[in-house]
Known about the structure:
The complex is a heterotrimer.
Chain A: E1 2-9, H1 18-28, E2 36-42, E3 49-55, H2 59-62, H3 66-74, E4 79-83, E5 86-92, H4 96-106, E6 111-116, E7 119-125, H5 128-134, E8 144-150, E9 165-168, E10 171-179, H6 182-191, H7 201-214, H8 219-229, E11 232-239, E12 243-248, E13 257-260, E14 264-268, E15 284-286, E16 292-297, E17 304-307
Antiparallel strand pairs in A: 1-8, 1-14, 2-7, 2-8, 3-5, 3-6, 4-5, 9-10, 10-11, 11-12, 12-16, 13-14, 13-15, 16-17
Helix pairs in contact in A: 3-4, 6-7, 7-8
Chain B: E1 2-5, H1 11-19, E2 29-33, E3 50-54, E4 69-72, E5 88-91, E6 107-110, E7 123-129, E8 143-148, E9 164-167, E10 178-181, H2 185-197, E11 208-212
Chain C: H1 21-33, E1 38-39, E2 53-55, E3 76-78, E4 87-89, E5 93-95, H2 105-118, E6 121-123, H3 131-136, E7 139-144, H4 153-158, E8 161-165, E9 177-178, H5 185-191, E10 199-200, H6 210-224, E11 231-236, H7 240-250, E12 254-258, E13 267-268, H8 269-274, H9 279-292, E14 300-304, H10 310-318, E15 323-326, H11 328-334, H12 342-347, H13 372-376, H14 380-404, E16 418-420, H15 423-429
Parallel strand pairs in C: 5-15, 6-7, 7-8, 8-11, 11-12, 12-14, 14-15
Antiparallel strand pairs in C: 1-13, 2-16, 3-4, 9-10
Amino acid sequence: MCGIVGLFLKDKSLEPQLGSLLAGMLVTMTDRGPDSAGIAIYSNETKDQSKIVVQSDTPKTDFDGLEVALANASGVTVGMEVSSTHAVLSVPNGAIDAVRTAIAAVNPALRIMSRGDTLEIYKEVGLPKDVASRFAIDVMSGSHGIGHTRMATESAVTTMGAHPFNTGNDQCLVHNGSLSNHNSLRRKLRREGIHIETENDTEVGAAYLTWRMQNGATLGEALESSLTDLDGFFTFVVGTKDGFGVVRDPIACKPAVMAETEQYVAFGSEYRALVDLPGIETARVWEPEPATVYFWSHSEQPIKEEAA
Amino acid sequence: MQTLDMADIELREMNATLHAQAENTNQTAWEIKNPRGAHAIACGLDAPIEVTVKGSTGYYCGGMNKQATINIKGSAGPGVAENMMSGTVVIEGDASQYAGATGHGGLLVIKGNASSRCGISMKGIDIVVHGNIGHMSAFMAQSGNLVVCGDAGEALGDSLYEARLFVRGSVKSLGTDCVEKEMRPEHLEILADLLERSGADAKPEEFKRYGSARELYTFKIDNAY
Amino acid sequence: MTDTTNGAPRTTPIQSATFSDPINAEIRRAAATGIYDIRGGGAKRKLPHFDDLLFLGASISRYPLEGYREKCDTSVTLGTRFAKNPIKLDTPITIAGMSFGALSGAAKEALGRGATLAGTSTTTGDGGMTSEERGHSNKLVYQYLPSRYGMNPDDLRRADAIEIVVGQGAKPGGGGMLLGQKISDRVAEMRNLPKGIDQRSACRHPDWTGPDDLEIKILELREITGWKVPIYIKVGGARPYFDTTLAVKAGADVVVLDGMQGGTAATQDVFIEHVGQPILACIREAVRALQDLGMHREVQLVVSGGIRTGADVAKAMALGADAVAIGTAALIALGDNDPKWEAEYNALGTTAGAYDDWHEGRDPAGITTQDPELMQRFDPIEGGRRLNNYLRVMTLEAQTIARACGKSHLHNLEPEDLCAVTMEAAAMAKIPLAGTDWYPGKPNTSF
């Protein structure tokens, strides 16, 4: 159970403010989930480099010389920037898998938060304001991002139980609700060879989308089939390299508010999350329909807003 | 006009101030500034005062209202005017889910659209929505009137009891046990009165009436699941 | 034994344990009617229960208290976390929520009278607060249910505490039910329903879902009542660790936990017998949740579901509860299922002690009915006197046990004062099997 926020910028001039806007939105949702918080930011695309964000509970020792060890193990150049318990590793395009293998070999205790060309996920146990300041989210720039603050229902309060969940290169997901068939779905997906780390229901939702897309579905198709295959209550917000999407279960009990202006599309679990956005007074504000996939993209495609 | 600015005072102080207004207060007009989506604004009022909220509200604004008139100059979050007993709540913008849920009396006017579950379990309240309403509206609605000048979403009036539903536009689908019913003169009269009191620009003759088929009123094999 | 009447030896007819008489009868009933069985009461199957636990008592290593001279306090205060006016009770045995509608107005009055005489609280139910009940209850807990029948802010402000009902032990995940026979004019008016219909109420609250919304609902209720009265959250015995944790996170003052033996006025038999956990399995998990949050005794835990005696009360408290609630037992104290009505029970096709068709409104004892003639049989003053007596006996029994364990207050009973006589109870209550220091699942032990 949780609070979700999302912000997709259409106006590039707002990009330097993405982190501060998103962190501000998330902090207003603190009451909905005091256990852990996380933010995914899409930013700083560099032509030849991809990123892997790793987390450690003992960053001082774990991150010391990590980039050298990984370079030796993988045979590619690895850059590293440490931010509190997280380290952003920069690796050559196409070397993500090689470096992931190297991470598992060099230090299996390191946890992979995200991977992709532009995606960086930061998440920890604690309140949104503490998580935001720990990683200096408010000075980050980017094109879009999503955030989540968690009230754990059944699974453990841990870093890995925090959202967003990374679902594939440059893909992530946050969730509000409670899935009711995640245990059997987890077993099925594990049999299909999908790696699922925790007993968290949302991670299963994320893994499900990954599995569908590995089998050729587009993100939109995967979201639409999730309406059939996932049982229970959910509002998902997903991020991709180019855009972000929203889908609610057919019962649609968990709250969701969206706002759109010339400058941005925003999502909040409550209207409170949106009140500090520029021009919110005149924005188009609405609630997403049940069982309907919404998607916005920076690429040339038109807005996809079709009923499942 | 008394002003309560939520930038300066806490919710508790604001509500306590409004709760302290008795039947015979002289201070009948109140303005609440900077609501910024806060929850439980002006809930539990029980005096004939007029409260104007200058902005959008969070959950349960005007909850369990008695006597008071509450004007929301923005949009309202989930459960606006839930379990209202009497008085009036008017929303200039849209209302989120569960608007007027379980309301026993009074008038709720939504000038924009209402989201899902509008009038769920309503027990005597009158609700007039100038725009559209979302899915599962009037679920298990017991009594009162729900007037929709626009369209209704899926499963309107599912498991309905004796509430009257009037819709001018299209209905995406009717819920179990909800059927279209004959519009009789007394219904046109009720509609005319509600449309006028809510400032809606619509004619009673343009509406269709929906109500309970009363098939779920007894456990039978045919409707057990 | 072998039957040889026809010459060759024959086997004796053997009834199937799987296809027993009651099961076969139910198959025939279902085949004939096409509708599931609806009844009142709680689970009737045999379940591990408080009877499977025993107190150790004091001897040489522990010293008992003198029964009639040395004090053993029974008072409890509920709602100390946020409420300005917590509820102070003389005995930790409270009366659980039962609706006007399910019960007659006079029966509700009797519950109020008896609870007040005994210095404890009673609770409204799905159907609103009646004037009899408020008038005769010194401490009245107002239930806030998914149906919101009869819900109004005046009664909310008149209540001494508010109990947000998420679920009940007889049917975690299910809604209420009141059949047409009991929807009298007065019940219909209080619930805004047509008279005589079969009423089904919602299983989820109409205007919130989940703990994040619940936190906001609690805020609204506190704002309306000026943060004065405690807010309880009642859950059925489903996932007590998580449910208790989330109730506390959402801001509850008190958690009410109802095991599957808890009664109901009317629900599907399949629900009563097959959904939920026995209360014995729920208490330690709820207490563990409170302890993990550092909230044990800060947020009080009230448990219910099959509490019958002072021994049950003492055992529930030793497992970590702050108070208990009784429903079915209170109805029996009032005179429900009394053998003096045996002939009438027989006429209804049942027998005293087994009568559970409370939904039909034909209760010979005049308690679970809205029938004017049957209601006449029940005297609320006498009922109140009987309930008070019963509450006092249970309190004395619990005190007797507590003194024997050397406690000057009931709430000083501990799990270590208990042993278990069955493996099942040992496992569920995490109490060592008698004569051992072990229970199934005890950490760092192997079987």
